[in-house]
Design a protein that fits this description.
CATH architecture of the largest domain: 3-Layer(aba) Sandwich
Structural class: alpha/beta
Radius of gyration: 29 Å
Shape: flat
CATH class of the largest domain: Alpha Beta
Oligomer: single chain
Largest sheet: 6 strands, mixed
Distance between the termini: 18 Å
Strand order of the largest sheet: 3-4-5-2-1-6
Number of strands: 12
Number of domains: 3
Length: 460
C-alpha cells in the first residue's frame, strides 16, 4: 500500500459559487497549517468541534475569511490521519486563495480520490466501501442511491467474507494432506470438499448475475426516438420527460437537431434523445440533422421507432424500419386518440419487419399507453427477477473479479473430480482467494489502486 507522509489539501465542495465551500486537509502537518492560517501557535482545537475563526494569509497577514474550522485527530477521521476542514464562504476565488495559502505552508494539492485512498490505506474503509462513496456521489436515481448506500455500509465485503473463510478452510485441509503424500484424500473428505466448492460456485454465480440489473442502475440506458417527420416523436419525448422540452408543431421537420435529457424510470437512469425526422433532406440544415440522428441511433442501447397510427405505413416508415434492422428497438404506434387510428397499423405482417422487442400503441395527446411504453423500454434489459431489491453488483471491476473467482473454483473442482494432485487443485483455490481479496482491496496492487482512485473527484 502506498505510504503517505505529506499533507494534502483540496476543495471538497463542487466547483462554482455557493453559500459555503469546504476545504479539507489531511496528513501530519494539518494542525500546524491550521494554526498558521488562524495566526495562533497556541490554538488547540477540541477534536470534532466546529469553531469560528478568522483565516489569515500567512504571507501578507491580510484577512481572508471568517470560517468554521474543525480538527479531526488521527486515527478518528475519515482518512485515519489528522484532518482539518475549513467551512468558508463559497466564492471560488476565495477558496482558491485559501488553498494557495495552505500550499505555501508545505501542503500539496491532493490527487483525485486521494483522501479516499488514504482511508483505504489506513484501514478506515475497504476498497468496495470507498468505491461506493464515488457511486453515491454519482447516483442519478433513488435506486442507485440505495445500492451505493448498501455497499458503503460494507455489504459486499460482508457477503464475500464467508466465501473467503470457507475457501481458506478448504485450502488448509488440502495443504495439510500434502504432509501425507503417500495417502490419497479420503473419500469422505474428497466428497465434502467437492460439495463445498460446488456450493461456493453457486453462491457466487447468484451474486454475479445481479450485475445485469446493477449495471443499469449505475450506467443507465441510452434511448433514442426515431421516425419520419411529423409522427409525434417530440410529443412522445415531452410526455416521457414530463415537461415540454422539445418544440412541437404541425409543421413536418420542426426538430432539426438532437435533444437529450436524463430521466429516471423505475429507478433506472435513462438518457432520452429526440431526433430529427428521417427522410430525404430538403436543405443543408435538415441534412445535418438527419446525419446526427443516424449517429445518435448508432450509439444508443435502445431505439423507439415512432409510427403514425392514423395513416397507412409510408415508404419513409419502411425506410426507418430498415435503418434499425438488427438493432434493439421497440415500435411505438402513436396517435391512437384520432378516429382514423387503426390497430392494423401495428400488425406484424403489415410492418413487413421482424426482430423488434415489442409494439405499443400510444397517444402523446392523452397519454394513453404511455405506461405500457415505459414498461416496454425497460423490458429488454430486465432479467426474470425484474427490479427486485437486494444487494446488486454495480461495478464492472467487481463483476470481472467474481467471474475470475468462479472460473478458478470450477477449474479446481474439475481437477478434484479427476483425483488430481492437491498441488494442482490448490493453484485455482489460491487464485480464487486472491481475486476476492482484490475486490475488497486486501490483495490489490498499488498500480490498480491508482487507476481506481483516479476516477474519483478531487477532494474526495
Amino acid at each position: 500500500m502506498i505510504a503517505q507522509t505529506d499533507t494534502i489539501v483540496a476543495v471538497s465542495t463542487p466547483p462554482g459559487r455557493s453559500g459555503i465551500g469546504v476545504i479539507r486537509l489531511s496528513g501530519p502537518g494539518s494542525l500546524s497549517i491550521l494554526r498558521q492560517l488562524v495566526a495562533s501557535d497556541s490554538f488547540d482545537p477540541q477534536p470534532n468541534l466546529l469553531t469560528l475563526r478568522t483565516l489569515i494569509d500567512p504571507v501578507t497577514s491580510e484577512r481572508l475569511d471568517q470560517a468554521l474550522v474543525c480538527y479531526f485527530k488521527a486515527p478518528h477521521s475519515f482518512t485515519g490521519e489528522d484532518v482539518v476542514e475549513l467551512h468558508c464562504h463559497g466564492s471560488p476565488i476565495l477558496l482558491r486563495a485559501i488553498v494557495d495559502a495552505a500550499l505555501r505552508l508545505d501542503a500539496r494539492m491532493a490527487d483525485p480520490g486521494e483522501f479516499s485512498l488514504r482511508a483505504v490505506a489506513n484501514g478506515r474503509l475497504n476498497l468496495t466501501e470507498a468505491e461506493a462513496i464515488r457511486d453515491l456521489i454519482d447516483a442519478h436515481t433513488d435506486a442507485a442511491l440505495r445500492q451505493a448506500t448498501r455497499q458503503m455500509k460494507g455489504e459486499i465485503s460482508d457477503r464475500l467474507q464467508p466465501v473467503k473463510d470457507q475457501l481458506l478452510q478448504i485450502i488448509v485441509r488440502l495443504e495439510s494432506s500434502l504432509e501425507f503424500v503417500e495417502d490419497d484424500l479420503p473419500n469422505v473428505v474428497h466428497d465434502n470438499v467437492f460439495a463445498s466448492l460446488t456450493s461456493l460456485q453457486s453462491d457466487l454465480e447468484k451474486l454475479a448475475k445481479t450485475f445485469s440489473r446493477g449495471k443499469l442502475l449505475r450506467d443507465g440506458i441510452r434511448v433514442t426516438l426515431i421516425g419520419r417527420p411529423n409522427v409525434g416523436k417530440s410529443s412522445v419525448f415531452n410526455r416521457l420527460l414530463g415537461r415540454g422540452r422539445a418544440i412541437v408543431t404541425d409543421i413536418p421537420g420542426t426538430t432539426r437537431d438532437t435533444i437529450s435529457e436524463s430521466i429516471g424510470l423505475d429507478g433506472v437512469p435513462l438518457v432520452l434523445t429526440d431526433t430529427a425526422g428521417l427522410r430525404t433532406a430538403g436543405d443543408q440544415i435538415e441534412s445535418i440533422g438527419v446525419d446526427r440522428t443516424k449517429r445518435e441511433a448508432a450509439d444508443s442501447d435502445l431505439l423507439i421507432v415512432v409510427i403514425d397510427g392514423s395513416e397507412p405505413l409510408s415508404d419513409e416508415d419502411h425506410s426507418v424500419l430498415s435503418e434499425v434492422a438488427g438493432r434493439r428497438h421497440i415500435i411505438a404506434v402513436n396517435k391512437r386518440d384520432l378516429p382514423t387510428f387503426s390497430e392494423t397499423r401495428i400488425d406484424h405482417d403489415s410492418l413487413s419487419f421482424q426482430n423488434f422487442d415489442s409494439v405499443v400503441s400510444i397517444s402523446a395527446v392523452t397519454e394513453a399507453g404511455l405506461q405500457d411504453l415505459r414498461s416496454a423500454i425497460l423490458k429488454p434489459f430486465m432479467n426474470r427477477n425484474g427490479a427486485a431489491e437486494g444487494l446488486l453488483i454495480t461495478n464492472a471491476r467487481h463483476y470481472d473479479l467474481l467471474r475470475r473467482t468462479i472460473d478458478a473454483i470450477i477449474s479446481s473442482a474439475d481437477l478434484l473430480k479427476t483425483r488430481a494432485s492437491e498441488e494442482l487443485i490448490l493453484v485455482g483455490l489460491h487464485d480464487a482467494l486472491r481475486y476476492l481479496g482484490e475486490i475488497t482491496g486486501e490483495t490489490t496492487s498499488d498500480e490498480i489502486l491508482g487507476r481506481i482512485f483516479s476516477t474519483f473527484c478531487i477532494g474526495k
